[in-house]
Structures are given as structure tokens and as C-alpha cells.
Specification:
Elements lengths: L1 E5 L17 E2 L2 E2 H11 L5 E6 L4 H10 L5 E6 L4 H10 L7 E4 L9 H10 L5 E7 L6 E2 L6 E3 L7 E10 H14 L6 H7 L5 E4 L10 H13 L5
This protein binds cytidine-5'-monophosphate.
Cytidine-5'-monophosphate (C5P) binds next to helix 3.
Length: 230
């Protein structure tokens, strides 16, 4: 299975002036944890790491420090996650039929989740790791802050990554998104908007996306619970 890791963002919401994936988490850069899980996942053979050129030297040092046993290719990212993934898709070898996409910022992903998604992807055109929502979610009018409605929680799942797709179909969805000017925060949305089916694969509650400083503290706690960090 092919894996693309979007890692070309910044550290703005983290209050950092550098890519948050290079911030230390238990003495290792955050991205090293994501790559370690990808290294340990048996189903993955090829990894495309999507980054900004100014980070490539640091990325290379991380890859070397992990003695990665599978090929890691460096791909130049874009201004948005959507653009970064589209570039990643274009950099896949022509023989790639299916691809998993996993945000570098979800550094607590387990190898088992990668393998579960890779296995499922052999039987469906698109999938997303997700977990049932615990909170009651309100739909809110952005300008007035008035609540417009409360969707039935039993139908709500919080989308994570990995997400997986047939490469050709996802590429066409990205092209359609560009034509139509769709701005999305994950790839499954493009698939859905093109009328293609997306299946849920049970994700992991600990598979959080490190976005703000509090996430970093929670991630550290979870890693220590797993016996990492001495
Ligand atoms: O900012 P956020 O955490 O939502 O980004 C999700 C993932 O997309 C991160 O791993 C980030 O590095 C990546 N990204 C990217 N290219 C961008 C912006 C974000 O690859 N231009």
C-alpha cells in the first residue's frame, strides 16, 4: 500500500513560527512518531512525505534517525492541505492503484490502524477512519451565533485520518474540486461531493490531531501511558 503524509503546514495555531511537526514531543520531533507508526505498519511499502522545501533537511534527518526500512519520497507541498495532497497524488508512481493519506499531525496513530485501513481499502473505493462523536454538536449561524439546529448524535462520527481511496478516482475528485472551487479540509469530502461512496473504518480515540499546545500535552501523556519516553 502507498501512503501519503501531508506535512507541509505551519505552526500558526500552535503559536510556533516553524512547522509544528518539527516541535519536540518526548525528545523526538512530532513527525518522527507518525513515521515510526508508518514504519511498523506491515501493509505500507511506499511513503510520500509532503513538505515545504525549507523543512526538507529536518525531514531527512528524521528519516535517517529512524532507519526507515521502506522508501520515503519527498514531495513539495502547496498552500493548503488540499493542494498538498493533490501534489502528492501526482507524485505517486503510475502503478499505484490505492493510497492511504494520513496527516503528519496525527502522530499517535498506531500501525494497527494503518493496517486495518489498508485491508479494508481492498474492498471499497473510499474510506475514512472515524470515531463516534461524544459531544452534542450544534449548528450555528456564524454571524449571529444563533443555534440553527442539533443533529442527531447517533449519526455523527468525527473524521480522522488515515483516509484511503482508489488513486484514479481521488485524482479526478481533486480535479473536479479545483474546477468547482471547493475548499475542503479532508479528501473524503471531495469523494462525497462527487457522489462516490465513503466507508467508515473504526478509528482510535487516541488518534488526535495535534493542533494547539494543549494537544501536545495530551499527546505526551498518551505516549507515556504507552510506556514511551523512559
Ligand atoms: O493545520 P492542520 O493540522 O489542520 O493540517 C492537517 C495536516 O495537513 C498537517 O499534517 C499539515 O502539516 C498538513 N498540511 C499540508 N499542507 C498545507 C497545510 C497543512 O500538508 N499547506
Amino acid at each position: 500500500m502507498y501512503l501519503l503524509i501531508p506535512a507541509a503546514g505551519s505552526g500558526r495555531r500552535m503559536g510556533s513560527d516553524r512547522n509544528k511537526l518539527l516541535l519536540p514531543l518526548l525528545e523526538k520531533p512530532l513527525l518522527a512518531w507518525t513515521l515510526s507508526a508508518a514504519k511498523a505498519a506491515r501493509s505500507l511499502r511506499w511513503i510520500g512525505l509532503i513538505g515545504q522545501p525549507e523543512d526538507f533537511q529536518d525531514f531527512k534527518e528524521i528519516v535517517v534517525s529512524l532507519s526507515m526500512t521502506k522508501m520515503v519520497h519527498f514531495i513539495q507541498g502547496g498552500a493548503t492541505r488540499q493542494e498538498s495532497v493533490f501534489r502528492g497524488l501526482q507524485a505517486l508512481p503510475a502503478v499505484a492503484q490505492r493510497v492511504l493519506i494520513h496527516d503528519g499531525a496525527r502522530c499517535l496513530v498506531t500501525p494497527e490502524l494503518f493496517d486495518r485501513c489498508a485491508g479494508e481499502l481492498l474492498h471499497c473505493p473510499g474510506l475514512v477512519a472515524a470515531i463516534p462523536v461524544k459531544d452534542t454538536i450544534k449548528m450555528v449561524e456564524p454571524s449571529s451565533y444563533q443555534v440553527r439546529g442539533t443533529p442527531d448524535r447517533r449519526q455523527l462520527w468525527a473524521a480522522q485520518t488515515p483516509q484511503g481511496f482508489e488513486v484514479e478516482r481521488l485524482t479526478r475528485c481533486h480535479q473536479e474540486g479545483l474546477r468547482q472551487g471547493w475548499e475542503v479540509t479532508d479528501d473524503a469530502t471531495l469523494f462525497e461531493q462527487c457522489g462516490l461512496p465513503v466507508k467508515i473504518v473504526e478509528g482510535e480515540e487516541t488518534n488526535l490531531k495535534v493542533t494547539t499546545p494543549v494537544d501536545l500535552a495530551i499527546a505526551e501523556f498518551i505516549l507515556r501511558q504507552r510506556g514511551e519516553g523512559g
